[in-house]
Amino acid sequence: TKVIRVWSAGCAGGEEPYSLAIAWRAVLAERFPAVRLEIVATDVDDMSLRRAKAGVFDVHAVANLPVEWVAACFQLLDDGRYELSEEIRRSVSFSKGDAVTDSPPEGPFDLVLARYSLFLYLAPEDARRALEKVQRVLKGTLVTGLSDSLPQDHALQCVQGAPNGVYRCSEDEPPSPNDGRPATLTELLGLEERLGT
User: Where are the alpha helices (DSSP H) in 13-164?
Assistant: First the structure.
């Protein structure tokens, strides 16, 4: 079994890492049966982490998910909210962590998600420090928020064909779809190259 590791940095209420876990279960797990997805999620806010670990969301949080995914992964509660299945909740490991002051989770990670303005509001020196920590454990793709800008001296490469905010380690060969379409999740995770599919 191969393991694909993901770090959701600044995971807020858990929507991002859980969405990835749901998409993996619904679409990719069957296609890649010899691969296990391991998701680590960190946030600095205790209240957000409690909400994330509970795995209970209002109707707006699930409104854009395919109906069959909601049926397979959630239980409708009496109060109209949706509770994630135990299987999905167990697939994400949450912990408290500050991207600037704390050590990053133990890497390496194939994908780091830092989409919730991780770098946007930081002072330049703090942004540099946070990026150094991300780069220390990154062995694949970094996805930032569209409004985030990385410190200018970073050593990452933009992924050709992907939206702004998608980077790869400079020693990695970036996925480059030659038809102009955005890179897919399997390309960002490097599944085809790793498994020879």
Answer: 15-23, 46-54, 59-62, 67-73, 86-90, 124-137
Residue 61 host element (H or E)? helix 59-62
- Structure token digits, residue 117: 């303005």
d(CA 165, CA 114): 9
- Chain segment 162-174, per-residue pLDDT in tens: 667 888 886 655 4
- How many domains are there within the chain? 1
Burial of 48 (0-12, 13-18, 19+ CB in 10 A): middle
Domain carrying residue 191? 2-195
What's 11's domain CATH number? Answer: 3.40.50.150
**Tens-place pLDDT, residues 128-182:** 999 999 999 999 999 988 777 788 778 888 877 666 788 888 665 544 444 444 5
pTM of the model: 0.85
Q: Cα Rg for the chain, rounded, in angstroms?
A: 17
